[in-house]
Description:
Rossmann fold, 10 helices, 2 domains
Amino acid sequence: MDTLFFVFSKIMQFCIEPLNWVIICVALGLFLSLRKPQLCKRLLLLALADLLLVGWLPTSEVFLRALEDGVPKVQIAQMSEADFAGIIILGGAIEGGEITMDRGEISIGSAAERVTKAFEFIRKYPDLPFIFSGFSGRISPVRMSEADAFKQLVAEQGLLDKNVHYENQSRNTYENAVLMKPMILELGAKNVNDSDVTPKPWLLITSASHMYRSVKIFQKQGIAVIPVPVDYQTSNRLRWWRFDLEDGMQNWNNFLHEAVGLLAYWITGKI
Length: 271
């Protein structure tokens, strides 16, 4: 069932990307240009409207900013290492596939802050256990998993690996939480003192737009987390004057991916 859910989610991801709608409208318009010219014009106008909507940044930023602000940011600097059970880093920023294997170098994508923030915390809290979770988000993954790629990065950075743990089978956020849960419970039990009443929360590192869904999933699994959102794509002010198809497309993709994901996870009882 989880595999079916995963495949269906990837199909939906293709369908909701706004620029794919442009391709569909243009293709249908060209196909109907001779038989139904009026319908063809409407489809081409719809494609143009789609491009304008995607490119004018405020239309996407207003929704994405609300999503990124959905989880309040905790002041980690005001807390001590004793307040945390460990660190969780969710995959999604590392390319461990064919390019990495062919070129011999780990590629970090647009969500690179997940990795840089993880390195910062590993150095800052060397005695805390940390778990990196992620295999691949592709339907047909190739070669190295994200977890194995992160392990290579840790070695290249010369970071201590005495408390490192990896989960290299998960394909989405739900599987991140489910497959990590036994590890979290085991590591948490080792660090619980007789005076502790409740288990300590784990620091959770992921992109700001992804944090709301992630927190809900971990809460559903009974895992207490402190959100550490990174990879913000919006500021406090809307850029009313900006038109940028590349940024707009990325904003819409991030927002729609999370919005549809939240709906799907709610319907299936995962949050």
